[in-house]
Design a protein that fits this description.
The complex is a heterotrimer of chains A (341), B (370) and C (110).
Chain A (H helix, E strand, L loop, with lengths): L17 H11 L6 H4 L5 E5 L2 E10 L5 E2 L2 E2 H15 L2 E13 L4 H17 L3 E10 L8 E11 L15 E4 L5 H9 L6 E2 L9 H11 L3 E5 L5 H13 L2 E5 L7 H10 L13 E4 L4 H9 L8 E7 L6 E4 L5 E3 L13
Helix pairs in contact in A: 3-4, 6-9
Chain B lengths: L9 H14 L4 E7 H9 L2 H5 L3 E8 L1 H4 L2 H11 L4 E5 L13 H6 L3 E4 L3 H10 L4 E8 L4 H14 L4 E8 L1 H10 L7 E5 H7 L5 H7 L3 E4 L3 H16 L5 E3 L11 H10 E8 L3 E10 L8 H4 L15 H5 L31 H8 L1 H4 L7
Parallel strand pairs in B: 1-2, 1-7, 3-4, 3-5, 5-6, 7-8, 8-9
Antiparallel strand pairs in B: 6-11, 10-11
Chain C lengths: L4 E11 L2 E8 L2 E6 L12 E5 L2 E5 L2 H29 L22
Antiparallel strand pairs in C: 1-2, 1-4, 2-3, 4-5
Classes of the chains: A alpha+beta (341), B alpha/beta (370), C alpha+beta (110).
Chain lengths: 341, 370, 110
Amino acid sequence: MPLSDTLRVQLGHGSGGKLSAQLLRDRFLPRFDNPILARLTDAAVVSVAGGEVAISTDTFVVSPLEFPGGNIGALAVHGTLNDLAMMGARPRHLAAGFVLEEGLGFDLLDRIIATMADAVREAGVALVTGDTKVVERGKAGDGLFITTTGIGDLEPGFRPSPDRAAVGDLVLVSGPIARHGMAIMAAREGLGFETTIESDTACLVPLVERLRERVGESVHVLRDPTRGGLASALNEIAQVAGVGVVLDERALPVPGPVFAACEILGLDPLYVANEGVLVALVDAKAAEAALGALQGHPLGAEAALVGKVVRDHPRMVVMRTGLGGSRVVDLLPGDQLPRIC
Amino acid sequence: MKYLSEYRDPAVARALIQRIKTSATRPWTLMEVCGGQTHTIVRQGLDELLGDAVEMIHGPGCPVCVTPLEQIDKALALAARPDVIFTSFGDMLRVPGSECDLQQIRSRGGTVRVVYSPLDALELATRNPDKQVVFFAVGFETTAPANAMAVWRAKELGVGNFSVLVSHVTVPPAMTAILDAPDNRVQGFLAAGHVCTVMGWKEYEPIAARYKVPIIVTGFEPVDILEGMLLCVLQLEQGRHEVENQYVRSVRREGTRPARELVERVFTLVDRKWRGIGEIPRSGLALRAEFADFDAELRFGLGDMHVSEPAECMAGDVLRGKIKPHQCPAFGTLCTPERPLGAPMVSSEGACAAYYNYGRLRTGAGAARA
Amino acid sequence: MCLGIPGRVVERRNDRGLPMGMVDFGGVKRECCLAYVADEVLPGDYVVVHVGFAIAKVAEEEARRTFEVLREMSQLEELDWMREVADQGLSGLEGGAARPAEAATSEPAP
């Protein structure tokens, strides 16, 4: 009888959905058991001599290495900086590890390094240490894997955290969704279609800074919905905080070409990855100011109010459809696959 | 998107819902044949919005769900071979076979690639001359023209390392099988709009006449489905039983002739087993003898397979509309999208998956979390 | 069956005897096989595409005509609804069933 639990890792374990959660819960957490890890936040707040810092790490395995709007280097820098920012931390230092495949072209590597250098400089941080290894041809996917680790300072009185989501909070997104995942899909062989869709990869630190300045503690939760999309991020928050979330389908900002690409492949934009968008759960009284703060920055120009936190259906995300019906928006077991039916 | 987005217009949809409610003087029971229509109905909550006026029984129109277990197991056997690149539509990757599924074969070292079009699989074969490329040719009549063209071109261009594993089914025999069942409650049908785009609707006229059921050829967007339901209810209220076309922008009575012609040249009608339902005579397609060279079952000498289905799976009853997914004891407990017992829980348009993913609030299974 | 998506034929070409064409789906383009509609379709026409094959030409005049009928019907229904609301003195109804003046399109934000 076919079941999803087998003796081996499957691709679905990397999708950000239920299998990923199971992998963490069943294999990693029991062995590394500690209260900080157990919170499963994007970045960890730890004590060092002199106070607390936030630390975060992320691994990047994207294929293809270069895609419309960016490359793996951009993701590697932005991803970790954003994880720190989602905890309310100001990123300070970055470390990076590189696994290079024998045969990887230097021209490609140079472009990736240049992108990383620009991203680091733009964010006002420094790459302070790193490591490189080379493996035999065939052992590193498309030629390159990158891990980045970042350290950041915490701002007093600004500690967004999933468990702070409260009934009555409003849900904001900083921009159009599903761009990164569809840009990658479009570039993949076998599905290949021509499109203007570009990855939205970006450093979200300036947006978070504006939110902190304008509404401070009223920001209860910040999250960057990467793999698994907006749906997965909201489900995780709902489950940790024990609240329900209601989304308004008509309010979701989905660009025309992204909508079209999703229709052709039968994909739901709610589950498609983003790399330059944040979702914020904000106290209702501060929501309008928060929205204004986001919209005042180019990255947040299309920020929108898309939902609210409710007492009903705890730990579940529900969406009101355009017709006034409602549907559950659950975590998917694994990756969304293109479909013909 | 033109000719798509306007058929999601909330004002028009709500007006249609109102019309259906005021037109129905008694509750009617309809069946939408196609899984894509089931997907829209459950995802948009149309059944909830219609209340008691219309009960929708979900039909077996999910070719993924009805692909015989034997064919899945043959696909798994082929995908496991080191000399084979196995290609498939994404829908098939997580359908459970007797032991595992295509995704698990991939994690064990098999080469499995998702393609959007059968021509992409053919292209893959051209670019990998040292490998065998097998394409899983699954679907209803809608997909048969595409699959037929891939085989035709392979022969025309002499792509010797390409072959297809065929598992096609046709809709009209399934409808008559449902209508013939002694406990049938279906009073009217929404026929599958894209199947009819290819085939036209002539073959449904004798069915409507013989069983005295209205059959409305219907599209897939909310406005299409609601308009189809309204036309069906109006016929039932007026005591009529005709074939009527709602999906006028895509369907003509004769369908798309060049597509039907190539399908007839490449494929022939055979008896076919439907997973969960059993054998329905002359309801499947198989390659004609002159294309036998491209039949993966022959090329790789795949014989009969011994198959085993989990006892708790009630897919058959769901597919025939006898029960709703949440009435299956295993629904949401033993059987969930990440541990599916049967195909309707895997396919995104399978009735069980649709109910689980979208409808749990209504069915009361909402409290169950993994 | 399922995923048949309407798109506009942008250009046609011939791949070793097989009619192919670039089809634009609301900003996303893909090459599709036009063999089954080859005699009917010119650049600018709309087709319904399933797994990379055009399976029909969109009957645009028919579509426009029937949608107009639907649109008129929906306006009549809205008038009925408004009359009802006025009769019963209701206001501020909740949820999707209650907003007659709502914009017609559900096209997502660009």
